[in-house]
Task: structure prediction
Amino acid sequence: MIHCKDISFKYPKSDFIFQLADLNFESSQQTAVIGPSGCGKTTFIHLLSGILLPESGSISIDNVIINQYKNNERRDFRIATIGLIFQEFELLEYLSVLDNILLPYRINSILQLDETVKQRAKDLADRVGLSNKLNRYPKQLSQGERQRVAVCRALITQPKVLLCDEPTANLDPENRDNIINILTQYCKVQKTTLIVVTHDHDILNKFEQVVNLKSLIS
Amino acid sequence: MSQQFYLAWAYLKYHWLKTLVLIVAISLVLFIPLGLNTLSKKGSKNMMARAENTPLLVGAKGSDTELNLSALYFKKSHLDPIPHHIVSELVNTKLGAVIPLHLKYQVKNQPIVGTSSEYFKFRKTSFQSGRPMAMLGECVLGSEAAKILQINLGESVISSPASTFDIAGSYPLKMTVVGILNPTGTPDDNAVFTDIKTTWVISGLAHGHENLNEKTADSLVLSKSKTEVVASPAILSYTEITPENIDSFHFHGNPEEFPLQALIINPTDKKGSLMLRGRFENRTDNLHIVVPKITMKALLDTVLSVKDLIMLAAISIGIATLIILTLVFSLSLQLRKGEINTMNRIGGASNAIQLVLSLEIIITIGIGILLAALLVLTLNLYGPYLIEKFIL
Result:
């Protein structure tokens, strides 16, 4: 369970203040978070994942208050517990599809890369239809394929929580539906908590819960 | 660390052209001053060694450097000739051993060194096979010359004409190889040694031909009297000296006046050296004496002062290049801010990310240094050859 309590956050040299009184996400629940542009959706995802730290309040995942962790501990916790998908895919251009999927295992030693993980990466790629493109580079892929690689990278660590920041914003309707189906089905099978920030109202019916951030923040 | 190395290597491999340019720039920045230093040190050492082993040189007045390069390294030169009688004149002083040098001809590109068998003792060269030349028309090959000419003991080499238009003299002479020297790592390795008289045969000052007498066919004779038979150009001149025809070889003119290019003098002692030098000070003819060590040192000092200037320029360029490289690396980091951010946001450990970036720089610089070291090593091995081939 994810619990946000009395969160307050402010960017340096900015008037924008993000304040959230109370918000819970049940384990295995699939939630869409909506809200108008500039309301703080990305900030919210970054706070939940521990990329940003609230000035006050607390965020806990499975009773672990992540904002009490030190920087390195928070990174370790994030890479082991949370899968992140970004709007711009953010793949490393110089890595092949397979190496992009395995990236988390190469940048933090708390994850150990072995043959099982490599096989899992191949299975994930197979599941999203990329098994024949494992040696290609991001430049050689379509937008939809790139986002599927990003999805695999987020899922390779078998996270308890999957946080997605506008994962379908750069995709056509076909690829958008494909990505959302992959995410929801995977999370349902693996009992992963899924939180998707989106402004695309056409996909809201795929989620068990929809949270309008605008109504919650002050 | 292996995972970070994998990422760093993947980055460098993907951007191979950029990496290659950086590596080449780094290796050149290091190689130019280091290589220049190595080359000059090695070259100086080799050049000085040869000069130090040659106490005195006598030649026609002119450039000391040209006399040195010609007599020590057998480089093509236009040294004025000195008469052969100087040899006996100097021998009579009993102040040192005198070794004549005739340095005008070649076998293909290998210099023919006309000298005496004393030369081998003086240079302390030993024979891989065979013996020193003893008869007219015999020669000894340096180890490298034998390889280049692909000639074995007992086979023959033919001297090349000094000039295409040299109709009057320097006939191609077939010389029998009677000895091959052991490698010495000096210009001797590339030379074809023969007797002074044989070089005079090549130059046309001595020759052999069919015997002329009263019975010689009229077609081979220009005029005939009781005391003299004048041969026509149709008479057969020998181009090879054999035991059968050696007696027919004879000199036209006074051999004492025949030309040499230089003399090596090995004085009996320091006093002998000083006395010889003193005697040449007062000579009014065309001869002068040089101490190769002094001449070569003066030459090297000039070369080294030029080298110092080049070094200064190379180091300045090196510093400028390193500044540019630093700029390239920092700009590259700026451009990769997004990528670094992604790794941070995914949960990459900051030390692991820093290690990836550091390894990229370390690998690039490391390969650059390795390449520079390899180039310096190669230069170290082949430096003397390069100096001899391109500088001397």
User: Anything to note?
Assistant: Chain B touches chain A at residues 3-4, 6-7, 10-11, 13-15, 338-339, 342-350, 352-353, 356 (CB under 8 Å). Residues 55-292 of chain B form one domain. The radius of gyration of chain B is 31 Å. Chain B has two domains: 2-47+299-391, 55-292.
